[in-house]
Amino acid sequence: ALAFEDVYIEQRKTIRIILEYADKVFTYIFILEMLLKWVAYGFVKYFTNAWCWLDFFIVDVSIISLIANALGYSELGPIKSLRTLRALRPLRALSRFEGMRVVVNALVGAIPSIMNVLLVCLIFWLIFSIMGVNLFAEKYYYCYNETGKAHFEIDIVNNKTECFELINQNFTEVRWKNVKINFDNVGAGYLALLQVATFK
Known about the structure:
Layout: H1 13-41, H2 43-46, H3 50-71, H4 77-83, H5 98-109, H6 111-136, E1 142-145, E2 150-151, H7 160-165, E3 174-177, H8 186-198
Antiparallel strand pairs: 1-2, 1-3
Helix pairs in contact: 1-3, 6-8
């Protein structure tokens, strides 16, 4: 049901009503399933399983959302933020299939090794970030004309002094701007290297 919600949901009343009923039905099913597990496993033993904790959290979010809708508080900011956690519902499918649980448990178990690899990557990125700061710090600035919404070419304006001299030439709204991705400091260098590594 969550997959069918979009920005036009308020305009399509029929679909919205159907989704609201589907949300209630699934919430009641989840609650019933949790209660049956409490009876089958025992209340205390139920909470010894991490997957049961996940189910319990998802059911709690669904119950709070259901109560908020019934009381007319669904438009409150915190409730809207809480409703986004309903997107975790598909994770319940992981607890149904043994193969998927094995994969998830293997990924969780591999986190310490992955952290070691990440640490090595961060050290190498630190080296290149420091090199970038030394080579390219303050090299990406350009003179921008706010009036014409365009920048001056490097052969016309080569530095900050020349940029501000344009104010005397009837270019009253000029700014010495920097590009978003730069190497002015190590943190900005890390961000630039991340974008290079991810091609974004």
